[in-house]
Write a structure and sequence with these properties.
It comes from Comamonas sediminis. With about 900 residues, this protein is of the alpha/beta class. The chain contains 33 helices and 27 strands. It is globular.
């Protein structure tokens, strides 16, 4: 703190006294100020804005809180400083659970040094007292989410409400940065900058690869020339211990639930006072909670579940008990992995791969969440490839190599919503709002024509919708734009935010509390009397009415568990590349017992040896392509499948499978099915394809990528799917109607959006939202940017063709995935187990490699390959006129928590 005192002007007695009071409070709490915290306080005192980056548990909260509190203490010595109206500080958080936790953490220091301050929470979980404190301007510090901030800014009182604001802290900024919620927050910050230009902005982030860009985006509205970038450079030990079966024990090469490891997980749980078990999906969390409950020897109240679809009351009860240390175990998703402080938690268990270095480190930081404590996580392998991921994550985390978070640009649905909010807040003049919007990174490149298109959309929807008054929401006259009528005001405020409805149905006891929500499609498959698992309970469906599933407790364990639609967790390219390098190195020379990754790689040795015998473990500069079995299909048999291993993650492989199938169909008319996992993809043709006759450089070329992806699938339907969410955010369709308690059903929303999509496609094909829907379909459904980077990487690799007679360990996992969604009276697990046993028997008696005729071909980059045979002439098959690739996607469990 001496450094802080030295930076204060000697005549500024008030700041010196405030610094002493802050220092005394820290000393009373036995807290020693870290260097990065002192740097942050000094930078704030000097009037800077910036970004604070530090590992989990290092004290970022105090780093961001100290400067504003010292400033407020100094100002409170004057009558003007104590009599301010409205919040002096906003703390923006991405999660409701994190908001509640943050309020608990900051209330203590605030009450100690500023007893006249009121701390309120303004989220979907806020109490009526908190809302009253915020709305009346009696709360000096408000913990808030981006959606609630947008709602406050939609009121005319916001001009006065935020005029005295001094500081805005954005917690976990890296989570908001790559989403539309981050775009909405950028626009809100630009509006606050116009209302309170004296306010300083500080972001907090623990793990991000593009820290400078993140800072620039956050502070774009303030146009800060040299933002303060403060990092805690002290290394924090990261320990990842992988849980594997004994050597020689069979372990699946595919799968994701990992319930076979239930016994090991139970041992870990009961060896610690309090544990969080993290899963990647809500459905997986429900299944793991049910499995643990079936063998739980203690009071059932000591086991709980936490995810985003549970009711506020259920989640808050779990969080309170976790803080109090009365819970032995909580099974959770990402709803608890961001900055939530539970000192009682001593152990974190991750089920399966987290698919991201940053996510694994974040989750590991929930245990022993105290400054100076090492980060430790127990990682449970659910299938063999998880072991390679664990080894790669450990190495990258120790080197602090984290994933980039790419910000979104030009989201016109969010801009349309923001413009309507500005209209509600007393109206706006288009040139002034345009200048304000262009200060954000998201809309820095907004053209005049695009801005006029946004205004035209809000005024009448479209030229084809001008006859329908419900689409007239904005009225502009004499240079001022205001809501068209009072109905528009009510409707807009009910739909503010970018988290769109997915046909949720409330689940509620007949005579009791609400438990949460499940998807409408899941409930629609049930009949009264069916038993299902939800919220850690076995429930029997009594009836379904008014978008509410009325239930009661059941004594029997349900056989059905809901799954939620959402986005797959993409595996980062750096993680995939390191996995491939580790596997290649391990196959060439087994790891020594004292090597950093000996445990994982030694366990994988038998599988890697078999992979080498039958095919190849590809190096970092190789792309392995396998064609398993005979290339010519006999009568009634399937053609030999193709397996490609880019090690780029399931999301990237989905798009690559579409592209490969499309371009193979250009050679000959065919029908394809495919399956994907984290290391590769399988293409199953109906008619035989000779991999030797394919010009693979042509298949993986970057030219024509956009066109081929559009032609590969029913692109119009993908755009239609994106249009539904865009239309909700932009206010074109409504999920809530004033005066009605229930939301519109998912089917109603889909029908409304589809009708509008068809009308606009026919009469206004260049409509602003249609163009956005098409672009999002390319970027988010077909993953165009990811595909561009992947093809550029493949162009630098050598194509290695192998023709194993039987499945390899790599191909077996993809083969297993391909059976999902097929009709059979044999379970997927039994079918895979039977095939695995057969493979093991064959491997045990296999004298040597049977790889057919291995061929290595140069990549498009022209890099020579050792021993490469001269290429065979390319097949001159052409795609008949009108023939399309009939591609069938294998269903995958998807979830967004």
């Amino acid at each position: 703190m001496a450094e802080l005192d030295n930076s204060t002007a000697p005549s500024d007695r008030a700041m010196q006294r405030a610094a002493k009071r802050w220092r005394d409070w820290l000393k009373a709490q036995d807290i020693g100020a870290a260097v990065f915290q002192q740097q942050a306080w000094r930078a704030y005192a000097d009037g800077h804005s910036g970004l604070i980056s530090a590992p989990t548990g290092r004290g970022k909260t105090l780093a961001a809180l100290g400067g504003p509190l010292m400033q407020a203490m100094a100002e409170a010595e004057t009558p003007e400083g104590r009599a301010s109206h409205g919040p002096r500080m906003l703390w923006v958080t991405p999660l409701r659970a994190l908001a509640s936790d943050t309020r608990e953490r900051i209330t203590g220091p605030v009450a100690a040094v500023l007893p006249h301050w009121q701390v309120a929470m303004r989220t979907g979980d806020a109490t009526s007292r908190d809302k009253r404190l915020t709305d009346t301007g009696k709360a000096q510090l408000v913990v808030i989410t981006p959606e609630s901030l947008a709602l406050l800014l939609s009121h005319e009182r916001s001009r006065e409400q935020f005029s005295q604001l001094r500081c805005i802290v954005v917690d976990e900024w890296h989570e908001l940065l790559p989403s539309k919620r981050g775009v909405l927050l950028q626009l809100n910050l630009a509006r606050i900058q116009a209302l309170a230009p004296q306010a300083q902005v500080w972001g907090l982030s623990a793990t991000i690869g593009n820290l400078q860009e993140a800072s620039d985006v956050l502070l774009s509205a303030w146009q800060v020339q040299s933002p303060a970038l403060i990092q805690d450079m002290r290394p924090k030990p990261f320990h990842l211990h992988s849980i594997t079966p004994p050597l020689g024990t069979r372990m699946p090469w595919a799968g994701h639930l990992g319930l076979a490891n239930l016994g090991e997980v139970a041992k870990l749980v009961f060896s610690a006072p309090s544990t969080i078990v993290f899963t990647n999906t809500r459905a997986q969390a429900e299944l793991w909670h049910t499995a643990l409950a079936s063998i739980w020897p203690e009071d059932a109240e000591t086991l709980a579940i936490h995810h985003g679809s549970l009711d506020q009351g259920v989640r808050q009860s779990v969080e309170q008990r976790l803080r109090a240390g009365t819970l032995r175990c909580v099974v959770a998703t990402s709803s608890l992995d961001l900055g939530v402080d539970f000192p009682a938690v001593e152990r974190v268990i991750q089920i399966g791969g987290a698919r991201s270095v940053a996510r694994m480190v974040q989750r590991a930081g929930r245990a022993k969440h105290r400054p100076g404590a090492a980060v430790h996580v127990e990682a449970v392998a659910t299938q063999a490839m998880d072991l390679a991921e664990f080894a790669a994550v450990r190495e990258l985390a120790e080197a602090q190599v984290y994933e980039r978070r790419e910000p979104l640009r030009l989201c016109f649905d969010v801009l349309s919503q923001h413009a309507m909010s500005a209209a509600l807040a007393g109206g706006f003049r288009p040139p002034e709002l345009l200048a304000e919007v262009r200060r954000t990174a998201a809309f820095r490149d907004l053209s005049d024509a695009q801005w006029q298109a946004v205004l035209a959309f809000l005024e009448h929807g479209s030229d084809s919708l001008v006859q329908y008054p419900q689409y007239e929401r904005l009225h502009c006259a004499d240079g001022l734009c205001q809501p068209a009528n009072t109905g528009v005001v009510r409707m807009h405020r009910m739909s503010i935010g970018t988290i769109t409805a997915h046909g949720a149905v409330n689940v509620q006891y007949l005579r009791g509390a609400r438990l949460g929500s499940v998807e409408e499609a899941f409930i629609a498959r049930l009949s009264p009397g069916d038993v299902f698992n939800f919220a850690g309970r076995s429930l029997v469906l009594v009836r379904l009415e008014n978008q509410t599933a009325w239930v009661r407790r059941s004594a029997e364990v349900g056989l059905l568990t809901p799954a939620w639609a959402g986005s797959l967790m993409p595996m980062s390219s750096s993680l995939g590349e390191r996995m491939q390098q580790l596997l290649s190195t391990a196959a060439a020379s087994p790891a020594a017992d004292d090597a950093p990754h000996a445990r994982e790689l030694q366990w994988l040795q038998p599988l890697l040896q078999l992979q080498s015998q039958r095919s190849l473990v590809p190096g970092a500069d190789q792309l392995l392509i396998e064609q398993v079995g005979n290339t010519q299909a006999s009568q009634g048999a399937k053609a030999a499948p193709l397996f490609v291993y880019p090690f780029a993650g399931r999301v990237a492989h989905e798009g690559l499978a579409v592209l490969i199938a499309t371009r193979l169909a250009h050679l000959q008319a065919n029908t394809f099915a495919w399956a994907c996992n984290e290391i590769g993809l399988m293409i199953q043709p109906t008619l035989p394809i000779d991999a030797n006759a394919v010009d693979w450089a042509e298949i993986f070329k970057l030219d024509g990528l956009d066109t081929d992806l559009r032609s590969a699938v029913n692109f119009s339907e993908l755009a239609r799917k994106r249009f539904k969410e865009i239309a909700q955010i932009a206010g074109l369709v409504q999920s809530k109607v004033p005066g009605k308690k229930s939301r519109a059903s998912d089917r109603q929303l889909q029908v409304s959006a589809s009708l509008l999509f068809d009308v606009l496609s026919k009469y206004d094909p260049e409509h602003l939202l249609l163009r956005q829907a098409r672009q999002e379909a390319l970027d988010q459904e077909l993953h165009l940017p990811t595909m561009q980077r992947l093809l550029a990487s493949i162009a630098m690799r050598q194509i290695a063709l192998r023709f194993p007679a039987r499945h390899t360990p790599f191909s077996f996992g993809l083969w297993a995935e391909s059976f999902r969604g097929q009709l059979s009276n044999e379970t997927w697990q039994d079918k895979v187990r039977r095939m695995a046993t057969q493979q093991e028997r064959q491997a045990a008696g296999e004298p040597g490699p049977r790889t057919g005729a291995p061929r290595t071909r140069p990549s498009r980059s022209g890099a020579p390959s050792r021993g490469a045979a001269p290429p065979r002439p390319r097949a001159k098959g052409t795609l008949p006129q009108g023939t399309r690739t009939a591609a069938r996607r294998t269903p995958q469990l998807q979830d967004r928590s």
